[in-house]
Design goal:
Oligomer: single chain
Largest sheet: 5 strands, antiparallel
Mean pLDDT: 84
Distance between the termini: 107 Å
Membrane topology: Single-pass type I membrane protein
Protein name: Intercellular adhesion molecule 2-like isoform X3
Order of helices and strands: HEEEEEEEEEEEEEEEEEH
InterPro entries: ICAM_N (IPR013768), ICAM_VCAM (IPR047012), ICAM_VCAM_N (IPR003987), Ig-like_dom_sf (IPR036179), Ig-like_fold (IPR013783)
Low-confidence stretches: 1-28
Main location: membrane
Structural class: alpha+beta
Keywords: Cell adhesion, Disulfide bond, Glycoprotein, Immunoglobulin domain, Membrane, Repeat, Signal, Transmembrane, Transmembrane helix
Length: about 250
C-alpha cells in the first residue's frame, strides 16, 4: 500500500463510525489523493442524502467493495499507475449527483544509494560523496541529506514538478580528516508531499565506512632530500680533506 494510502483508510474508518446507525452528516474524506505508482487506494463513496439510489464508484480500474451502509460504500481500487479521476455517483430525490476523486500518482524513494569515491584515503586528501535516489517523482518536496555519523555534511532540496520518474543525484566534495575514520557515512532521502494532500516518505542508505590514513611522504621529495644530504656530506668531506692536506703540507 502507498505510504499515503493511510489517509484513505482513516477516512473510511471515520466514515463507518459516523454512518452506522446515524442520519447525521458523515465524513467524506479528501477529494485529492496522492497514491504511489502501482499501489491501491481505499475510496469512501458517500452520498449527500440518507437514502440514495444507485450509489456506485465509476472507474476502469479493478475495485473491490469492502463494506457498505445505506449512505456510503467503501471500495479498494487496485493498480493505480497514472493520474486518474474516480467518479462517485448516486441519485438523491430523483437528482443524479457526482463526487470526483482526483488521484495523482507519485514515485516515492524506494532506494537510497551512497557511494564514496575512495574506501581508503590519507588525511588531507580530497574525496567525493555521491548519493543517488533512483526513479522518483515529483522532485518537488524531495530533500537529500549527507551525514557523517549524526552530523549533516550537506543538504539539497530539489525542485521540479515533472510527473515522470528520474534519478535524483547529490554530489559533495570534501577533504578527509582523521575523525572521518571513526564515523559512518550515510544518506537520507525525504519526500514531503503534505502540502499537496500527500504524506511523508523517509528512506536511509546503507552506511559506508572510510579508512583514513596518515599522509605518506612524497617519494620525489624524499629523493631530493636524500640527494641534498649526500651532497652536503660529500662537500663537508671534501672541505675536511682539503684542510687535512693543508696542515700536512705546512708541516
Amino acid at each position: 500500500m502507498s505510504p499515503f494510502g493511510g489517509w484513505g483508510m482513516l477516512a473510511a474508518f471515520l466514515a463507518m463510525l459516523c454512518c452506522r446507525g446515524s442520519n447525521e452528516k458523515v465524513f467524506e474524506g479528501p477529494e485529492h489523493l496522492m497514491v504511489g505508482f502501482g499501489e491501491f487506494q481505499v475510496i469512501n463513496c458517500t452520498a449527500s442524502c440518507t437514502d440514495p439510489k444507485k450509489l456506485v464508484l465509476e472507474t476502469h480500474l479493478n475495485k473491490t467493495l469492502l463494506d457498505s451502509q445505506a449512505q456510503w460504500k467503501l471500495f479498494r481500487v487496485y493498480n493505480i499507475s497514472k493520474d486518474e479521476q474516480l467518479l462517485c455517483s448516486f441519485t438523491c430525490a430523483g437528482k443524479q449527483e457526482t463526487k470526483v476523486f482526483n488521484i495523482t500518482v507519485f514515485y516515492p524513494p524506494k532506494q537510497v544509494l551512497l557511494t564514496l569515491s575512495h574506501t581508503s584515503v590519507a588525511v588531507g586528501t580530497l574525496f567525493t560523496i555521491e548519493c543517488m535516489v533512483p526513479a522518483v517523482a515529483p522532485l518537488e518536496g524531495l530533500s537529500v541529506t549527507l551525514l557523517r555519523g549524526t552530523e549533516i555534511l550537506y543538504n539539497q532540496t530539489f525542485v521540479g514538478t515533472a510527473r515522470f520518474p528520474q534519478d535524483a543525484v547529490v554530489t559533495h566534495h570534501t577533504t578527509a580528516h582523521r575523525e572521518d575514520g571513526h564515523h559512518n557515512f550515510s544518506c537520507e532521502a525525504q519526500m514531503d508531499l503534505r502540502s499537496r494532500g500527500g504524506g511523508l516518505v523517509h528512506r536511509v542508505s546503507d552506511p559506508q565506512r572510510l579508512e583514513v590514513k596518515e599522509p605518506v611522504p612524497n617519494n620525489q621529495m624524499v629523493t631530493i632530500i636524500t640527494i641534498v644530504i649526500m651532497l652536503l656530506i660529500l662537500f663537508v668531506t671534501f672541505v675536511l680533506l682539503c684542510r687535512h692536506r693543508l696542515r700536512t703540507s705546512n708541516t
